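INFO worker-7 received task bundle
INFO bundle size: 2
INFO processing item 0
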Amino acid sequence: MYQNEPIPTLRQWGAIQVVRNSAAEETLGQLCALRISFSKTKSATDNLFGLSAALLDAAAFAADSNIRKLNVNRWDDGAFILAEFENEVTAEIELNLGLPASMPGIYFVTAFCSEGITTNQPLTGYFNPSGVLLADQGSCKTFLVDRDICEDEIAQARCRALADGLPPVPQTIIDLIKEYFQ
């Protein structure tokens, strides 16, 4: 399943950018944990290994830290990845390529911080196309991100990464996750 070719990064995904920036600015305190839910219908161009590596790289980028521990459980159309970073942030990544064709994809990122959460997951309903939520004890604010959060945005982020000459997913992450996909 592992292919020896550059894997486009998801570091430019709008939700990941917001999490990284709000963590750096400590908008809601210190980043403690991340949860990424990435579910879609499998297409001919999807590569489970490549998407797993790209999502793990995006989590490491959002956490702004290197991976200390990694555990991956995978199956035919998906994977569950649990990572602990050197700065003690943990990330839980759920990748599912088994949605029926009648369902739109689900691309949620939730950052759990010491004083609140940042997420593009809606509080109610199924979609939150309008942006990202920041919530703490006193308020819940919604603001727009530069890029819409949808399947096209994911593909565009990966294409932009290649077009902008951004480095692909680092080899260190590929090497860490590769053993789970052989």
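INFO item 0 finished
INFO processing item 1
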Amino acid sequence: MKKRYLVLTALLMTGLLIAGCTKKPEPEPVVNDPTVTTVTEPDETENKENVQEPEEEKPKETGEEGQNVLDLIDADYMDVSFYIVNLTGVDIGMVACIDPITNEQVNAGGVKAEEVIVLTMEWPIEETVFNFAVYNKLGELVSESKVDITGVTKSVTITLSGDHSLDSVTSEIK
């Protein structure tokens, strides 16, 4: 009787093992991943004659001199490179600035001692103040500064200097 029970149990376990191994696991759905795009194909039964492809919208409005309105909007911004030079003798954990278009903080990253990082941003022409903050490696705020960048056309070099601390901030506009 015990032998029959063991044989039936072994057969049942083998069957479950085989059934479990042959089942393919379903892939987990990816949520909020900007690198993944989902493509859906139309159903075969759908009437393809009624499907209309979206037309590309082309701006038809023009400015005073016949320019495209979108070109006029782009003319209010320029690309500005901010060179942040660390001459303090210590590594800076992070430099962050306020994006004048979105009013959100932009993290430029850390700056090692005696090195430079470059932050290139689309900058409104009428904006003349660059707001930035310096954080140590622990994420603690060290300094907040405002630099007048009136007349900038290409780049701004911001030099952070001091003797093992942030003592002064200077800027050069190009």
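INFO item 1 finished
INFO post-check item 1: The radius of gyration is 31 Å.
INFO post-check item 1: Confidence is low (pLDDT under 50) at residues 28-51, 57-65.
INFO worker-7 idle
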